[in-house]
C-alpha cells in the first residue's frame, strides 16, 4: 500500500500540471466564444446619428454618412447578462433598442449572433449574422418622445 501511495505522491506535480493545462485550454475556448461584434451600416441616404452604450461602456455618439459603417467588439460575460443598446436619430425619426443582448448563462452556442450586422434603411432597421440575409426588426419612430426622454435614457 505504501508503494502505491509513494508512486502517486511522486506524480502529484504532474497531475497538477495536467489539470492546469486542461483548465487553461477550456478557458481559452470559452474566451474565444465570448468575442462578439456589432456593426452598423447606414443605407438611409443621409447622415444618421448613432449612440451605443452598455451598463459599463459609453461608446459616444457617432455620425455615419450614407454608406459608412461603425462597429465595436466586446467580450460577453459568463453570466449571460451582456447588453448593448443604441439610440438612432435621422431628422425627425428616431429609435432606441438593444443591438446585442445575451440570453443567459452558458449560452455560448445560442446567442442571437456573434457578428451582428445592423443595416439602417429608410423604412427601419435590419439585422443579420455577418454575410447573412438581413431581416426587418424595427421601424423608425416618428412620434415625438417625451421631453428629455432620450437624454434621461442616456442615449443622446
From TrEMBL:
UniProt keyword Membrane present: yes
Keyword NAD applies: no
Assigned keywords, A-Z: Membrane, Secreted, Self-incompatibility, Signal, Transmembrane, Transmembrane helix
Membrane spanning residue stretches: 12-30
Cell compartments where the protein resides: Secreted
Family listed: Belongs to the plant self-incompatibility (S1) protein family.
Protein name per the record: S-protein homolog
Organism expressing this protein natively: Sphagnum troendelagicum
Taxonomic lineage from the root: Eukaryota, Viridiplantae, Streptophyta, Embryophyta, Bryophyta
Amino acid at each position: 500500500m505504501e508503494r502505491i501511495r509513494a508512486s502517486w505522491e511522486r506524480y502529484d506535480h504532474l497531475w497538477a500540471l495536467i489539470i492546469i493545462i486542461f483548465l487553461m485550454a477550456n478557458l481559452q475556448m470559452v474566451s474565444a466564444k465570448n468575442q462578439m461584434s456589432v456593426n452598423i451600416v447606414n443605407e438611409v441616404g443621409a447622415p444618421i446619428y448613432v449612440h451605443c452604450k452598455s451598463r459599463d461602456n459609453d461608446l459616444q455618439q457617432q455620425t455615419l454618412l450614407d454608406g459608412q459603417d461603425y462597429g465595436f467588439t466586446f467580450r460577453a460575460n459568463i453570466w449571460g447578462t451582456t447588453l448593448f443598446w443604441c439610440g438612432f436619430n435621422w431628422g425627425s425619426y428616431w429609435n432606441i433598442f438593444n443591438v446585442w443582448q445575451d440570453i443567459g448563462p452558458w449560452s455560448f452556442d445560442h446567442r442571437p449572433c456573434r457578428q451582428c450586422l445592423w443595416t439602417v434603411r429608410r423604412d427601419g432597421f435590419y439585422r443579420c449574422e455577418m454575410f447573412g440575409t438581413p431581416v426587418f426588426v424595427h421601424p423608425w419612430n416618428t412620434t415625438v418622445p417625451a421631453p428629455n426622454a432620450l437624454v434621461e435614457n442616456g442615449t443622446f
